[in-house]
Structures are given as C-alpha cells and as structure tokens.
Specification:
521 residues, five-stranded parallel sheet, 15 helices
C-alpha cells in the first residue's frame, strides 16, 4: 500500500521510526526523503498525496496548528483519500476529522504504534481495493502553498516555516531557502525565529557569492585553462573563506598534494571514500596471540602494500547499487566479463536478489553474486580489493585483531549478538551505525554487517611465513574469498584476519566494497 505521512517536525523522531518500520510492507512518502534541493517542494507534496492509497495524519498540538499539515489534510479529503488519523499527543482533533475513527497512540511505544497502524490499514485495504475511495471528477484544483502573513502574531506556523527553510538551506536549495526565510522574517521580525532567519539570509548571500565564484573557476577548468583556475583558487579560498565549497572536487586538481591517511573524498558516483596509504602489516593470525585463530589464517606472515588506494568508506548501499541498475547494468553486456555474462544469461539474471528487511536505501546491498560485483566495479571504474588489501585496510600497520583494537567490544559492530531487528528478524544495519568500530583508515563495518567480496580465489591456507609484496593469492579456483563477518555471525568471525569463501553465489550475508588505485606520478 502507498502511504503518505503528514506530521509536524516537532514529532519527527518517532514519525521517522514509524516510517522505517512501515516501509517493510508498504511504500512510504515522507518529506524528509522526497524533498530534495531544487524541487518545487509544495508540488512534490501534492503529488505524494495524489498518488497515495492512504493518507496518515499524525495529530499533535503542533501538527493541528501547522498550516502545512492542515492544507495537506484538506487536500487529501478533497481527493476522497482513505484517511488514517493517529493521535500521537494529547490534543483536540480538528472538526474536519470528526467523521473518522481516530487511533489513539498517546504514550504507546513503537511496537504498539506499528501494531495499531497495521491493524487499521488491514481494515482499510479491502475498501481501498474495492475502489470505495474514487478520485472526484473533475479533480479539485491544487491548493497554493501556504504562506505566512506579514506581521502576523507569532505562532507554530513560524516555527514550521523556519524548520523547512533550514532544510532547504542545508540542501543548498538557495531560492527556496531565501523565500522561506524572508517569509519568516516578515511574519516575526522581532522574535527569535525572525532573528535566526535574518542570520541565515546573511549566510545565504555569502553562499551565493561563493557559488558564483566557484562557477567562474569551473568554467576555466572545463575549458582546460587550469593555469587560470589555479591562479583564482587561492583568492577564492582566502578572501571568500569558501574552501569547503567544492562540489566538483577540483581542489585536488588545482592544489597538487599526495593523498595521505585521514583524507576522504567523494567519487564521481557520490560514494564516500577514505585513503589507505602504502605500508606493511602482519597478515593472518598467530595462535599464540589470537586464541580464536583458525588454521586457514596461518601462518601469519608480513605483507607489503606498495600502492595507496581509495577505499569505499562503507559497504555499498542499496541506493548506490540502484544507479548501476538504472544505467542498464543488467540489460547491457558492456562491463561484464565473458564468464560473468555466461552466468547471467544461463541463469536469466535481470536484477539482484532482494530479501524482506534488507532493501532500505542505507542498508548494504546484498543478494549480489561475485559476477555482479565484478560487473558493478567495471561500470564504476573501480575494482574489488585483493584479500591482502582488505585485511590491511581492516587492521592496519599495527596488525590489530579487530579494526578498533585487540579486544572485542559489544556495540562496535553488527554481529549475531547485536540482535538488530530482534531474535527472529536479524538483519543488516544502515551504514554508519557503528562509528566506534571504524578501522585505522576510517573505513566502517570492516567487521560485521556483511561479508564482503574480494578479488582472490579461495586458498585454504597461506603458503609461507615470508614477506609477500602485493600478493593476490590463487589464480584459479571455484570459490572466491569473502571477508569481515556478518550480522548473522559470532565475534570470532568479526576478527580482521578471519577468512571465508563463497561459490560466487548470492546471499543475504554477503555485500560489496570497492577500491580505486591512486595513479603513479
């Protein structure tokens, strides 16, 4: 069922949690995800209402007083939508909802809220499917965006408008932010919201000035006139104080500096990466030090990584992998190896495999075979790590047992005992959920959450204890190595040296992470 959720931002914490739970079985429209910079935001809200099967309004004193929530509810009623009112906080529901059964969720915990919602939606669904809520003909005219009245008494509307303006400002939707801040300032010039709006408008002028200067530099970059761009860059940074405004990541091009440990960047596909410098470490386990060491991790031996590389900060997400699908990843042969294309054709593969509870945008992409991982890497201009590179990125020059140290710590990784989703619904966690568990280079989830494909074929043991330089492992085989442990494994599998293999098949426990080598200069 397609659900639209109308709410006050004062209630966003519980509403966002509620939306995440309902998303398991429904399609959710909620403005925090749908309203991106540059969109005509009010039209997008109206489209969301028009396209929903059921309109959920979360009632609280602030939502009832919100001109936006009121306008959204009125429009939903004019379209004859199925409406589910949820009373989140003690309040007097508006008269317009007097004919609807209001679900009281005051003081209810999240589990109860979801149960009440699902029960009500289950009752509504047959009526919706029977087309008992037809769209009026002709369709009502779309309402205009609510606006604040000049010199109006301070009200919750001002705070609601200010909150929306802040979101637009954060997303660099400058014209929208400017318009909303000006409305706040006009409605409440002497109050706290007006003062904040005035400060933001000054920041906005500065931001627009930065943007214009940056565009000027980019024109020289695009024309190939890097000398002129390099001459303008220091002035841009020092006089305007805009060093952080670099959407196209040209600073590295205009200011030559070798990357170093601690550097981060965003690649051409919007993936955050950390830099892993060259170095040496001890690969594998010494059973005298690590009592959980497995035989296939032995003998421990020194390894030298001679070239630095950019490493994905997080496992690849469902949202990021979707770009590959939309670009024709499963309909075009380009980028697929001969063996991978044969596998795809013989198995009639047209998309990755999805599993319930594992498909949220920020969850790691699972249900992808080694062949699909390889094809995605080629499409992105990246590559799978070697097993040695993966372990080096996880444990570093100090050869730590875990990415964070030599002792396991609960709450540093999503493993079996973390119990994400409950005892019978364990699953992956959104990327960035365990910042304390990041490795020495700043990579997250190197332990737990998902195993990760690497390039090497599986050898069941290391050959010697002598120094190896940029090793790759076996050249052939039937299985590929996976590293890192998953949400369904114990702490012994969360160790950086732990190894496992997969016959290149799909699994809800295996995900992806990629690297880009730094060119030799």
């Amino acid at each position: 069922m397609k659900l639209f959720i109308s709410y006050s931002r004062d209630d966003k914490r519980i509403v966002y949690q509620m939306a995440d739970e309902l998303r398991i079985d429904h399609t959710i429209w909620i403005d925090k995800e749908q309203l991106t910079g540059g969109q005509v935001w009010w039209d997008e809200i109206l489209k969301g209402i028009e396209g929903c099967d059921c309109f959920i309004t979360v009632l609280s004193p602030r939502s009832i007083d919100s001109m936006y929530c009121s306008a959204e509810t009125q429009y939903a009623q004019s379209l004859n939508k199925a409406i589910l009112p949820l009373k989140l906080k003690n309040c007097v529901p508006p008269e317009s909802l007097s004919n609807f059964q209001i679900v009281d969720i005051v003081d209810a915990n999240l589990d109860k809220i979801i149960r009440y919602c699902e029960r009500s939606l289950h009752r509504l669904e047959p009526h919706i499917n029977a087309n008992e809520f037809p769209m009026p003909d002709p369709r009502p005219k779309r309402p205009r965006v609510p606006t604040l009245k000049k010199d109006a008494p301070p009200s919750e509307h001002v705070y609601e408008q200010l909150a929306m303006a802040e979101v637009a400002f954060k997303r660099q939707a400058w014209p929208l932010a400017e318009n909303l801040f000006k409305q706040v300032l006009a409605a409440d010039p002497h109050g706290e919201p007006g003062k904040i709006a005035q400060e933001r408008l000054a920041e906005l002028v500065h931001a627009l000035d930065c943007e214009q200067a940056y565009k000027g530099i980019m024109r020289f970059v695009e024309d190939g006139n890097l000398d002129m761009a390099r001459r303008l860059w220091p002035e841009y940074v020092t006089r305007r104080g805009c060093a952080d405004y670099d959407q196209r990541n040209v600073a590295a091009l205009l200011i030559h500096r070798e990357p170093q440990l601690g550097d981060t960047r965003t690649d051409d596909h919007g993936i955050e990466q950390v830099y892993v410098p060259p170095g040496e470490f001890l690969m594998g386990s010494d059973p005298n030090i690590d009592k959980q060491a497995y035989p296939d991790e032995q003998p421990q031996h020194p390894v030298r990584i001679t070239r630095g590389f950019w490493l994905d900060m997080h496992p690849l997400t469902n949202a990021a992998y979707r770009a590959f699908i939309k670009a024709g990843g499963y309909t075009k042969d380009q980028g697929w190896s001969a063996d991978g294309l044969k596998w795809r054709t013989e198995n009639n593969i047209t998309a990755p495999e999805d599993y319930k509870g594992f498909t949220d945008d920020l969850q790691p992409r699972v249900g992808v075979s080694w062949w699909e991982a390889d094809a995605y890497a080629r499409w992105r201009g990246a590559r799978l790590l070697t097993e040695a590179e993966w372990e080096y990125a996880a444990r570093g020059p100090k050869s730590l047992i875990y990415p964070w140290g030599n002792e396991y710590k609960l709450g540093y990784a999503n493993i079996d005992e973390s119990n994400i989703g409950g005892a019978h619904l364990k699953k992956t966690s959104p990327i960035g959920s365990y910042p304390q568990g990041k490795s020495w280079c700043g990579a997250h989830d190197m332990s737990g959450n998902v195993w990760e494909w690497v390039a090497d074929y599986w050898p069941n043991k290391y050959i010697s204890n002598k120094l190896e330089v940029d090793p790759f492992g076996q050249k052939t085989g039937s299985a590929r190595v996976v590293r890192g442990g998953s949400w369904n494994d114990g702490s012994q599998y969360a160790r950086a040296a732990c190894r496992n293999f997969n016959l290149r098949s799909r699994s809800r426990g295996v995900g992806l992470r990629f690297a880009l080598s730094v060119p030799i200069t």
